[in-house]
Design brief:
Elements lengths: L2 E5 L1 H8 L8 H10 L4 E4 L10 H8 L6 E5 L3 H10 L3 E4 L19 H13 L3 E6 L3 H10 L3 E5 L1 H7 L3 H17 L3 E5 L7 H7 L3 E6 L1 H10 L1 H12 L5
Bound molecules: 1-deoxy-D-xylulose-5-phosphate (DXP) and the ligand NCC(=O)COP(=O)(O)O.
Length: 241
């Protein structure tokens, strides 16, 4: 089964545009779960341009599925994890103020840092996932440093999907086979959408979780949030022969 975690950063972006509390991020998270989402993802960036520090604590009180917090492991992020104890922490190598995540970790260059951080987070009782590109050498290193899961950075898959989906998925399918053999859980995210998600799921049978924000929230403008979540869940359902 592949779980759907809804990334609600964009709900906070919309709220912050007017400085008030509409839409209410906590209510939206509760509704996503009520409509079938199996997790809630946030990426509290240091500039708080969408999810704020207060949101991180407020959401902890209501999320009953899987709370997944993404971010660069600086002191602020580690304190949030220690205070809030989400089910999963996803480590992302973003420098501050980047427009959006645009690369995975170099697990060779950052081996010592990531190894220490993984240990620290696991000691808090939190599952760790590392945002990574589908490069076998980097994934082997990720397994060595002790992460529980990897999150495959799927932007390259998403951008090539329309022109050549077989080629687009190739490296991801191969990477997920290796990761699975190495005992790693497999998540995926970035630019996944209603169009490209079913094929990814079909080609990566061991896919544990997808986190989807930008496309899903955009789809919700047309289909409504409940229908949209149901549409994504349908795409992720196992196809029985
Ligand atoms: C880690 C990751 O893949 C990102 O997709 C991220 O959560 C999106 O962040 P923004 O919503 O700030 O673009
Ligand atoms: N980890 C990826 C994520 O949470 C959402 O990415 P996107 O769907 O907003 O591109």
């Amino acid at each position: 089964m592949t779980r759907l975690s809804v990334n609600i950063n964009k709900i906070a972006t919309l709220r912050n545009a007017r400085g008030g509390d509409n839409p209410n991020v906590v209510q939206v998270a509760k509704d996503c779960e009520r409509f079938g989402a199996q997790g809630i993802t946030i990426h509290p960036r240091p500039d708080e341009r969408h999810i704020t520090t207060k949101d991180v604590y407020d959401l902890k009180k209501v999320v009953t599925t899987e709370y997944n917090i993404e971010g660069y492991p600086d002191d602020r992020f580690m304190k949030l994890l220690d205070d809030v104890h989400p089910e999963q922490a996803t480590l992302v190598p973003d420098p501050p103020n980047v427009l959006t995540s645009n690369a995975g970790w170099d697990t060779v260059k950052n081996f010592d840092l990531l190894k220490d951080i993984c240990q620290e987070i696991k000691a808090m009782g939190i599952r760790v996932s590392i945002f990574i590109e589908p490069d076998i050498k980097l994934i082997e290193k990720a397994a060595e440093l002790g992460t529980d899961r990897i999150e495959l950075y799927t932007e390259p898959y998403a951008s090539e999907y329309a022109t050549n989906k077989e080629q687009a998925v190739k490296a991801f399918a191969e990477a997920s086979k290796i990761a699975s053999k190495l005992g790693l859980g497999i998540n995926a995210g970035h630019d996944l959408s209603l169009e490209n998600i079913a094929y990814l799921k079909e080609q990566l049978p061991k896919l544990d979780e997808v986190s989807i924000g930008h496309a899903l929230i955009s789809d919700a403008l047309y289909y409504g949030l409940e229908n949209t979540i149901q549409l994504y869940l349908r795409q992720l359902r196992e196809k029985t022969k």
